[in-house]
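Hi everyone, sorry if this is the wrong subforum. Our group has a chain we'd like a structural model of before ordering constructs, and none of us has done structure prediction before. Sequence below.
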Amino acid sequence: MGGGRFPGTSIASLKQRKELIPVWLCIGVGAIISVGYTLRLATKNPDVTWNRHSNPEPWQEYEKKNYKIVNPIERKIGTDAPKF
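Answer:
Right subforum, don't worry. Here is the predicted structure as C-alpha cells:
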C-alpha cells in the first residue's frame, strides 16, 4: 500500500486499469441524473417557493392543472384541497 492513493482515482492509474472506466462512467451518469432531478424539484415543484413576495402561495397555480406526469386513469383536473 504505497503512496496512499486508491488505484483508478487518477488519470495515470486509470489508463493502467481500463476495467474501472465503466464504473466511473456509471457513477458520473448517476450523479448527473440525481443533480438534474434535484434541480427540477427545486424549480418546478409547487411546494417550493423561492420568492414569497411575488407569489406567496405558489400551490394555488396548480389548482386547475394536472400535476402528475403519467395519468393512466382519467380523472377530473383539480384538487380536493380546502379553500382558505
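For your construct planning: The chain has a mean pLDDT of 78. Residues 11-62 form one domain.
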